[in-house]
Design brief:
This protein is mainly alpha-helical. The chain is built from three helices and two strands, in the order βααβα. The protein has one domain. Helix 2 packs parallel to helix 3.
Length: 68
């Protein structure tokens, strides 16, 4: 298992994710699955992506599924 994930790979690998809240859950799951670092290589292109999207995804990744 790799210890680094790119945000673009998570988004491309999960086309069913269409909202930012769903992406947060996906990122939280990645954080619990043993991935040590999440690389923000692109801005999520969802209609509801907030301005502070990096901070929110970092928090979800760090807290894992307890973020819900």
């Amino acid at each position: 298992m790799t210890n680094v994930a790119k945000l673009s790979d998570l988004i491309i690998g999960h086309p069913e994710v269409t909202k930012f809240a769903e992406l947060e859950k996906l990122v939280a799951h990645a954080g619990e699955s043993g991935i040590m670092h999440l690389e923000f290589d692109l801005k999520p292109d969802f209609r509801d992506t907030p301005r502070k999207w990096e901070w929110l995804l970092e928090a979800a990744f760090t807290r894992g599924l307890k973020y819900d």
